[in-house]
């Protein structure tokens, strides 16, 4: 019962990879500027009934974690990458996409969306007391249900991304955080107020540190060349590369940074002072067009990370550099896969398939073609 009550939004098996004794973690709490050496893993990235008291979502994640845990352990131990379209490849996609969608960061982000958009709409009504509106907070009771359903329904959109492992051969360890999966798009860095980090976006990069010495990268191979094109495992000897990759965690995290070595404490404190000003105060940005009398068009997007990624082994292809910024916006990486996903989501909504039956849908689709 206690295990069901304390529900982890970042799995304990993942956090153990950044622990020397598999029981405790070194961490830096950003909000309180507090360094803690050796806090229990049980206390990290968890909350009381975070996914609800019925245990249904928690049980789903336990099933995912039971198979993905062994796969990640193998990847770290022998620099292993699963082959394309194998069961292991599917497990890896599902683990990464659901991990991105299940954290406290996403919980807060969804409530921020509801609060900001809801208030933008209510402000247009003449009878709304604006002073009172500013004093209340609009939020969902269970904000993660929608992104979790979307992640389970849409995880296959990552299947066309190539895989690479970065092996850290420097004296600076990879760090991780309470929101460790980072979606980033180097290709769209120069477009103001546009991230391009949808799961189907062209130019998407997905970073996940697996241990202090191993990091997994999923990338759009039509846009990027990673190191030697013939290799899928790449050695990083440049400390600047590690610092840039670690900056992704500093800017993407919600509350805590986790690090392996006690002797890195001074570096972590120095980085916190250096990077705190770069962190976004808001998780989303609202954009409004029109006016209240004629009607408004209200949209939102994730806040863009305040950095320009500079990792020596990640290069833009020549043709990618030549594309105009207008052609980059809302560019879909794989239109055929995106269209199949749209059809599948409609059939899920109509009750023809369960959200987990993508493979069955594809088999039926091929038979009918």
Task: Kindly list the characteristics that best describe this protein.
single chain; 369 residues; alpha+beta; 2 domains; five-stranded mixed β-sheet; four-stranded antiparallel β-sheet; 13 helices
Describe the fold and architecture:
With 369 residues, this protein is an alpha+beta fold. The protein contains 13 helices and 15 strands. The protein has a 5-stranded mixed β-sheet with strand order 7-8-9-5-11, covered by helices on one side. It is globular, with a radius of gyration of 21 Å. The mean pLDDT is 90.
What is the compact description of this entry?
The protein has 369 residues and is α+β, with helices and mostly antiparallel strands. It has two domains: 76-333, no CATH class; 335-369, no CATH class. It is built from 13 helices and 15 strands.
DSSP, total strands: 15
Question: How widely separated are the two ends?
Answer: 49 Å
Which outline best applies? globular
Trace the largest sheet across and list its strands.
Answer: 7-8-9-5-11
Low-confidence stretches: none
Mean pLDDT across residues = 90
Q: What is the count of distinct domains?
A: 2
Rg (C-alpha, Å): 21 Å
Number of helices: 13
Estimated share of beta-strand residues: 15-25%
> What string gives the helices and strands in order?
HEHEEEHHHHHEEEEEEEHEHEEEHHHH
Helix vs. strand class: alpha+beta
Helix content: 25-40%
Biggest pleated-sheet summary: 5 strands, mixed
